[in-house]
């Protein structure tokens, strides 16, 4: 076991729910604790679409990766804050989809996670079986340190296009810093790279329910930034968005499902509660 994984295990918090583990629990994964499962059930009682919405986000990621690998020639991926979903069967994990869709036989993927359990379990269950995947302990809240990580710098070739998938933007509750993170990513990535973003929103929540939903979130997941479509568009300002632009995640390339997708929230895209977009970095 890597030394970093040992250090992460020592910091492990099991009694309070964490965002990446919540996503994993909602999507049917195993890299979570009872506190995370209890929180998912709590959310389901208030809004019985949480698990379906989690699957919709995961399917969005799958379609983005397959599109960029198959149609844009990308063979390097950095996935930030996905939770390294453990509910996917062998052969359908995100790095598997990239390899299957790409004409290259050497697609490289770096997962960046700040949750000790996610990092430890992913390193133990993925890295020993693949020379083309690495799991890094990093945090978008420390974007300069994350981009300077030795593995991030040496495992990926920063002279060629890279696809950066940011799934933790809602954890960046300081608006100025959130814009700085996007700026750092777009300026660090080589020309021809892509930046994908998924972001939680309350835009589809009925006005009469908003106060209760906000109160519940403040008690369970404080300091989570829930942005409107206009605010998410502002984060991507100046970037060239791949069609169909910024949309509900089930609407992004809905006609190109990945194997095993169940078209979560396809009949009610807004029920996903998340916007998604892919931007080209010139």
From TrEMBL:
Its EC number is 2.1.1.-. It is an enzyme of class 2 (transferase). Keywords: Methyltransferase, Transferase. One of its GO terms (molecular function) is methyltransferase activity. GO terms for biological process: methylation. Gene3D superfamilies: Vaccinia Virus protein VP39 (3.40.50.150). Pfam families: Methyltransf_19 (PF04672). This is SAM-dependent methyltransferase.
């Amino acid at each position: 076991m890597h030394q970093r994984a040992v250090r992460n295990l020592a910091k492990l918090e099991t009694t309070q729910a964490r965002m990446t583990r919540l996503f994993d629990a909602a999507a049917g994964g195993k890299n979570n604790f009872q506190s995370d499962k209890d929180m998912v059930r709590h959310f389901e009682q208030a809004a019985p679409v949480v698990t379906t919405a989690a699957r919709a986000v995961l399917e969005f990621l799958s379609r983005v990766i397959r599109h960029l690998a198959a149609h844009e020639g990308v063979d390097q991926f950095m996935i930030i804050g996905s939770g390294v979903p453990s509910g996917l069967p062998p052969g359908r994990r995100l790095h598997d989809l990239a390899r299957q869709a790409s004409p290259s036989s050497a697609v490289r993927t770096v997962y960046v996670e700040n949750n000790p359990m996610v990092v430890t379990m992913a390193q133990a269950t993925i890295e020993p079986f693949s020379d083309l995947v690495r799991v890094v302990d990093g945090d978008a809240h420390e974007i300069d340190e994350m981009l300077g990580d030795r593995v991030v710098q040496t495992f990926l070739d920063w002279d060629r296009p890279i696809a950066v998938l940011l799934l933790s933007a809602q954890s960046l509750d300081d608006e100025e810093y959130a814009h700085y993170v996007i700026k750092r990513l777009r300026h660090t990535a080589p020309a021809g790279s892509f930046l994908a973003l998924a972001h939680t929103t309350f835009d589809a929540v009925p006005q009469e329910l908003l106060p209760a939903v906000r109160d519940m979130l403040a008690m369970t997941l404080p300091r989570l930034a829930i942005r409107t479509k206009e605010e998410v568009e502002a984060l991507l300002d100046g970037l060239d968005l791949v069609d169909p632009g910024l949309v509900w995640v089930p609407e992004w390339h809905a006609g190109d499902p990945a194997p095993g997708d169940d078209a979560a929230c396809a009949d009610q895209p807004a029920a996903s509660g998340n916007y998604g977009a892919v931007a080209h970095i010139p």
